[in-house]
Amino acid sequence: MCSASLPERKSKERQNKMANIKSAKKRVLIAERNRLRNQAFRTSIKTAVKKVLELANAEDADALKSALSKAYQLCDKAVSKGILHKNTAARKKSRLTKAVNKLQAK
Fold this sequence. Notes:
Elements: H1 6-16, H2 22-58, H3 61-81, H4 86-105
């Protein structure tokens, strides 16, 4: 087995592949930049969802409402930027609301 971890191996494979045509080289660089930006945005959505679930357990109504609104806003923005499909965002929001309601019912 290779000594490098999986993410390191993937990033090295991406770096090794480079086209010969100038426009193709540019597209490779832009695609990598966009991939990193999209990954960061998806991570921020996950963080917002975790924060909402923590606040639902803590039963802080005002903070929960604002955090839930922020999570919805991030999902909607991801759809408008093309990072998430609209059905994926709707599913995430629906599951989040369902989980919050379940935690508050306890």
